[in-house]
Amino acid sequence: MTVGNMESVQLFDAGNKGRGLRATRELNTGEVVFAEPSFSAVVFDSLATQVCHSCFRRQAKLHRCAQCKFAHYCDRTCQTACWDEHKQECGAIRKLGKAPSENVRLAARLLWRIHKDTGIASDSQLISVDQLEDHVADLSEDDLKKFKTDVHTFQGYWSYGRKQHTIDYISHIFGIIKCNGFTLSDQRGLQAVGVGLFPNLCLVNHDCWPNCTIILNHGNQSAVSSALHSQRRIELRALGKIPEGEELTVSYVDFLNLSADRQKKLKERFYFDCTCQHCSQHIEDDLMMAAAEGEGSKPSADKVKEVTAFSKECLEKIERSRIEGDFHQVVKLCRECLEKQENVLADTHLCRLRVLSVASEVLSYTQSFSEAAVSAHKMVEGYMKLYHHNNAQLGMAIMRAGVTHWHAGQIEKGHGMICKAYSILMVTHGPNHAITRDLESMRTQTEMELKLFKKNEHAYHTMRETALKK
Questions:
Q1: Closest Cα partner for 188 from 85, 356, 51, 373?
Q2: pLDDT at site 223
Q3: Integer Cα distance of 345 and 287 in angstroms
Q4: What 3 state SS string does the chain have?
Q5: CB 21, CB 245: distance < 8 Å
Q6: Dist CA 361 CA 87 (whole Å)
Q7: pTM value?
Q8: pLDDT tens across 391-438, in order?
Q9: For residue 144, what are the CA distances in angstroms to 175, 179, 278?
Q10: Which residues pair with 223 in a beta bridge?
Q11: How does pLDDT run across 205-260, given as a tens digit for each residue?
Q12: Tell me: the pLDDT tens digits for 345-398?
C-alpha cells in the first residue's frame, strides 16, 4: 500500500452522518484500506522530553533542539526529517520564551501548514483541513472559556510574516482539533503520547461495531539512505471482508461500555447521537451487567445492584491508590472486590472485568505471576464474549495475558494465548508493526520452550528457575 493511495475509497453523502467514505471494491480481512501521513502532529506537554517529536517513539536518551531547547529527537536523522514541521515552531517558542500547550502548538502547526499548502497537502487529500467540522456552536461554557484562553495564548505565539487571523477563524481551528484530533500512541501501543490531524481519516464515520480499525505506523528513519525512509502515518485496516459500496467505519470510543454510556461519551466529545445497531438495540448490554450463573441459585437483582455499587466505589479507591503508587493497597482492594463479586457478577460484567484488568496488571508488576495469570485468564474469557473477534484491544489484552502465563511458568497456556494474539494483531496491525514483530519473537521463544517442556518437564522447570535467578 502506497502512502496516500485513496483508490479503494470514495467520498459520499452519508445522510444524517454528513460526509463518509465507502469502499470502491471488495476489501479483504487485514488489508490496508489507505495509509495517511499526519497533516500536523505534536507530542503531549507531559512527555515532551521522553518522546521523539518526529517519529513519536519513546526513547531513554533523546537529543534536544539546541535552539528552542524544547523539541527532542531520537537522533540527527529524526531531527532533519522533522525540520520542515519544526522550523517556524522553533522560532515562535524562542520568541515567546517557552512552549505553549499542545493544543496551541498543534493549532500553529496546522496554520503554518495551511499557509504552505493551502490546506491540501497532496492530490490524495479528499478535503481541505479548514473544511472539517468544528462544532464551536455546540461547545459548553467551560469549553468556550478554555478556547478563549487558548486563542489569547495563540495570538502571542503565532507569527507568519504579517498574516493575522480573526478570533473566529482561530476558534474554528481549535474546534477542528477538538473534534478531529487523533491520539497517537508510542511504538508499543502502550501509552498515548501525542495528538495529530489526518484529514482523510476525519471523514471515516463512527460505529460501535466497526468494519475497520486504525493503527499508527511510526515509519522508519533509521536506514542509511534517506530514499528508504518512510513517514509516520496512520493505517486504516479492514477487520473483515468488506463488500464494494459498504461504508467504512471505525469506533471513536471503547466498546466496553453500556450503549447509553457510549452514546453519552460520543455526544459530549463529538456532538452527535449514535444510532448504530449496537446502541439502538442495546446489543450486549445484558452481558455487561449480567449476574453470575452457577449450579446454585441465581443472585437476586437487589444483590447484583448492591455488589455493583460496592464495585464502583472500590474501583474509585483502586484508582486513587494506583495514582499514589500504593500497589499493596491496590492488590488488597482488588482481592476484596473480586471476593465480593464471586457468584454474584458474571465474568462479562463491566465492573468485574475492570477489577480483573487492574489486578492482573498490578500483580504482574509486583511479579506475583501465578495470581496475575488467574485474573488475566478470567478477564480474557470475558473480553472474548464481548469484543469483535478481531478487535485490537482484545488482541493486546490476550498478548499481555499470554506473557503473564508464560512468566508464571504455564507455558502451554501462555504459548496458546500468544499465538491467538498474534493472529488478531496480524489483522489489526499487520506483520511489520513493532508490536507484531515483538509477538513473533515471543511466539518463536514460547514454541521452543513448549517443545522442551513436552520433551522433559523437569529440564524445562530447571532452565526456567535458573533464568529467573539471574
A1: 51
A2: 53
A3: 10
A4: CCCCCCCCEEEEECHHHCEEEEECCCECCCCEEEEEECCEEEECHHHCCCECCCCCCECCCCEECCCCCCCEECCHHHHHHHHHHHHHHHHHHHHHCCCCCHHHHHHHHHHHHHHHHCCCCCCCCCCCHHHCCCCHHHCCHHHHHHHHHHHHHHHHHCCECECCCCHHHHHHHHHHHHHHCEEEECCCCCCEEEEEECCCHHHCEECCCCCEEEEEECCECCCCCHHHCECCEEEEEECCCECCCCECEECCCCCCCCHHHHHHHHHHHHCCCCCCHHHHCCCCHHHHCCECCCCCCCCCHHHHHHHHHHHHHHHHHHHHHHHHCCHHHHHHHHHHHHHHHCCCECCCCHHHHHHHHHHHHHHHHCCCHHHHHHHHHHHHHHHHHHCCCCCHHHHHHHHHHHHHHHHCCCHHHHHHHHHHHHHHHHHHCCCCCHHHHHHHHHHHHHHHHHHHHHHCHHHHHHHHHHHHHC
A5: no
A6: 41
A7: 0.89
A8: 999 999 999 999 999 999 999 999 999 999 999 999 999 998 989 999
A9: 10, 14, 32
A10: none
A11: 999 999 999 998 877 655 555 555 567 789 999 999 999 999 999 999 999 999 99
A12: 999 999 999 999 999 999 999 999 999 999 999 999 999 999 999 999 999 999
**Residue at grid coordinates 473480553:** 383
For 176, the grid coordinates are 477542528
Grid coordinates 520568541 are at which residue?
Answer: 95
* Closest residue by Cα to residue 240 from 219, 264, 213: 213
- Cell triple for residue 443? 511466539
Contact 316, 308 (CB under 8 A): no
C-alpha cell at 309: 455499587
Q: Does the structure show a pLDDT above 70 at 176?
A: yes
pLDDT of residue 297: 78
